[in-house]
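[Discussion] Sanity-checking designs against the backbone

I'm trying to build intuition for which residues belong where. Below is a structure token string of 295 positions. I'd appreciate it if someone posts a full sequence so I can compare it with mine line by line.
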């Protein structure tokens, strides 16, 4: 299967699994369940589930196990988007080409949607057998919890809010995004791999390095797209970072150097996967896809 067909197939599988795993909109509380499904279904690039499946292929994991891990990561991601869009955060009105959750429903419902999506993610990760040993599955739960918490995504968002209008060095900017964006992307890769066979030390270290680099790469590209693309292309409000005076790779380095940074990270990501050989093919293809999308 070529990369495009592989990606389309897994995006469809992710949509179908989320549709199956989310509570039906017909059961109480109906409005909350309608909002959950509104936020999680029918949009998004599904990069995190794709990374999860690609890493699962590397470790020869059962795709049915990876599907659950991928859904868990995606639910955490969607919850973060719903909360990030709230007026008390980024105050945005458009996400994935449609009104944000709090605009379509209301702020209180959107807050509860994020809470419920986060809870469901951990429920899914804990209630099915996803690893060969119970200890490994507990490690998977710990990994996702750390990635989503104050030392990961939530902490990164706090740093981001505090950094509005403040000058940051490149090291400070990267530290912020290692937490805000990179932690969950790293979790997606490592959770997918954890569903399969244990990897030799060299491969495990290379995969972890890849996962960290991929998180930064995704953010650099996101910053470039925010500065160069329009709202229709992005599916969210274009130019919002600049309008909010947020520090980005583009504001710090300029577009040309930001693109050079993306190319540098892409090469480093490929290099880190060298110990894994041909089994890392999908991860390499995904890296190239991330760095080349829409610019």
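Best answer:
Here's mine. Compare freely.
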């Amino acid at each position: 299967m070529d990369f495009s067909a592989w990606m389309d197939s897994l995006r469809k599988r992710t949509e179908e699994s989320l549709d199956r795993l989310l509570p039906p909109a017909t059961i109480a509380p109906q409005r909350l369940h309608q909002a959950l499904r509104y936020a999680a279904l029918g949009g998004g690039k599904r990069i995190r589930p794709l990374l999860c499946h690609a890493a699962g292929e590397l470790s020869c994991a059962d795709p049915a196990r990876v599907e659950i891990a991928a859904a868990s990561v995606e639910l955490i991601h969607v919850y973060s988007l719903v909360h990030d869009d709230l007026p008390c955060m980024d105050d945005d009105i458009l996400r994935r080409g449609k009104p944000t959750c709090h605009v379509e429903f209301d702020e209180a419902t959107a807050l509860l949607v994020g809470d419920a999506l986060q809870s469901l993610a951990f429920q899914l990760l804990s209630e099915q057998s996803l690893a060969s040993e119970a200890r490994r599955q507990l490690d998977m739960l710990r990994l996702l919890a750390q990635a989503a918490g104050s030392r990961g995504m939530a902490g990164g968002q706090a740093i981001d809010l505090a950094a509005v209008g403040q000058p940051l060095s490149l090291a400070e900017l990267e530290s912020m995004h290692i937490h805000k964006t990179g932690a969950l992307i790293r979790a997606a890769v490592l959770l997918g791999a954890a569903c399969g066979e244990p990897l030799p030390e060299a491969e495990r270290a290379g995969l972890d390095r890849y996962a960290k680099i991929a998180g930064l790469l995704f953010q650099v590209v996101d910053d470039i797209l925010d500065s160069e693309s329009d709202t229709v292309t992005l599916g969210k409000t274009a130019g919002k970072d600049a309008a909010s005076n947020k520090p980005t790779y583009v504001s710090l380095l300029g577009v040309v150097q930001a693109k050079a940074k993306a190319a540098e990270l892409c090469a480093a990501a490929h290099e880190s996967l060298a110990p894994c050989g041909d089994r890392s093919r999908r991860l390499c293809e995904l890296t190239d896809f991330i760095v080349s999308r829409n610019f």
